[in-house]
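Exercise 7b. Backbone tokens:
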């Protein structure tokens, strides 16, 4: 081998292979990063698409709801006002029936009659018209015209948009109204307060009609009995020509006593005359006078105690009528006292609605709560996509093996 041949370098096959490997690695990394970006963008689209849909629905499709609240207490004349936390809270501890009245007014406001009253006052269903264009409420308003909307559908809408709660501990009725405008919510809440006042007045009228009617009827009955007994006494006086047989008996007794006294005096005078003088004419006169007095005494005695129409019989009949009249007078007075007591009790049982907090105009949208709903949608989308991606990765791995 010559020196020239020894200087020829050997071919660098390893170096060429290394450059080719670097090129392949570059394209592999570029493909890897491209696929990762595509996967990231795809994942981002999958996660954000529900959020965008919810955002679009809440801002361009849904009918926003506004809330108005009010509270009141059904108070009676025995109510007590207490202060708690700088705010006046009305309670009625002395009247246990107040709690039942609170439940009654709660049931009334939630009933079909309560809905009909609010509908008559402010047109409740007509104020729910924006819900007809919201897909979530379109089913309820599939027949929006009032003539086509069924009673069950109206009650369903009413109970969905009006919430009535009664607190037994505080004895306060709370009203919460949802509507599709702040003004409608306030107007409906105010109408519910007026309906509660009307119901309280109905309770008062019912109590007045039942309690006073019974007491007034008793007074009228006792008055008729008293008039009848007084008329019977008056008729007896007219028929017997005697105002009071007891006074007549006293007069007859006085007459008899005087006659007996005169008879005794005459007999004494006759005895003295017979013992001292022989005046026969005077003695005969005295004897005649004694006989006349005795005869008069006999007549007055028979008038007092003898015969069917004697004074004693008249006294018995008269006292029976008089006792009946006195009984009717006492019964009439008792009935009048009962009527006065009924009026006093009715005044204590009068109920009236005392507003604790009046309806207010709140222009802040109560539903949908966009930040919370969007955050919840985002979290649920991420969880759903994470589970789906894990599932797809497992499937891909199983196919490779």
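Sequence design result:
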């Amino acid at each position: 081998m010559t020196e020239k041949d020894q200087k020829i370098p050997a071919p660098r096959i390893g170096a060429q292979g290394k450059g080719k490997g670097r090129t392949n690695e570059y394209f592999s990394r570029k493909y890897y990063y491209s696929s990762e970006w595509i996967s990231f963008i795809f994942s981002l689209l999958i996660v954000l698409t529900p959020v965008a849909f919810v955002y679009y629905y809440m801002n361009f499709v849904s009918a926003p709801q506004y809330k108005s609240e009010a509270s009141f207490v059904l108070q009676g004349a025995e109510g007590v006002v207490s202060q708690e936390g700088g705010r006046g809270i009305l309670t009625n501890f002395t009247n246990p029936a107040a709690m039942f009245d609170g439940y009654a007014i709660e049931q009334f406001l939630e009933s079909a009659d309560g809905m009909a009253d609010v509908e008559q006052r402010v047109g409740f269903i007509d104020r729910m018209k924006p819900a007809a264009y919201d897909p979530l409420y379109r089913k309820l308003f599939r027949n929006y015209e009032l003539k086509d909307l069924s009673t069950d559908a109206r009650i369903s809408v009413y109970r969905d948009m009006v919430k009535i709660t009664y607190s037994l501990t505080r004895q306060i009725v709370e009203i919460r109204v949802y509507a599709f405008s702040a003004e409608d919510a306030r107007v409906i809440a105010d109408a519910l307060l007026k309906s509660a006042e009307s119901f309280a007045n109905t309770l008062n009228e019912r109590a007045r009609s039942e309690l006073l009617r019974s007491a007034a009827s008793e007074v009228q009955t006792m008055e008729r009995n008293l008039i009848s007994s007084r008329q019977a006494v008056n008729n007896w006086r007219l028929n017997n020509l005697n105002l009071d047989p007891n006074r007549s008996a006293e007069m007859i007794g006085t007459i008899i006593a005087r006659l007996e006294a005169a008879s005794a005096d005459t007999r004494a005078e006759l005895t003295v005359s017979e013992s001292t003088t022989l005046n026969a004419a005077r003695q005969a006169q005295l004897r005649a006078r004694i006989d006349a007095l005795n005869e008069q005494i006999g007549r007055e005695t028979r008038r007092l105690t003898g015969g069917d129409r004697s004074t004693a019989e008249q006294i018995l009949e008269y006292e029976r009528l008089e006792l009946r009249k006195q009984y009717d007078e006492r019964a009439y007075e008792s009935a009048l006292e009962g009527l006065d007591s009924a009026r006093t009790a009715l005044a204590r049982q009068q109920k009236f609605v005392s507003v604790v907090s009046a309806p207010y105009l709140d222009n802040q949208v109560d539903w949908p709560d966009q930040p919370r709903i969007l955050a919840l949608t985002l979290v649920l989308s991420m969880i759903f996509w994470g589970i789906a991606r894990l599932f797809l990765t497992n499937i891909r791995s199983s196919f490779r093996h």
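Instructor comment: Residues 66-213+350-370 form a domain with the Bacterial polysaccharide co-polymerase-like fold (CATH 3.30.1890). Residues 1-8, 10-20, 79-94 have pLDDT under 50 and may be disordered.
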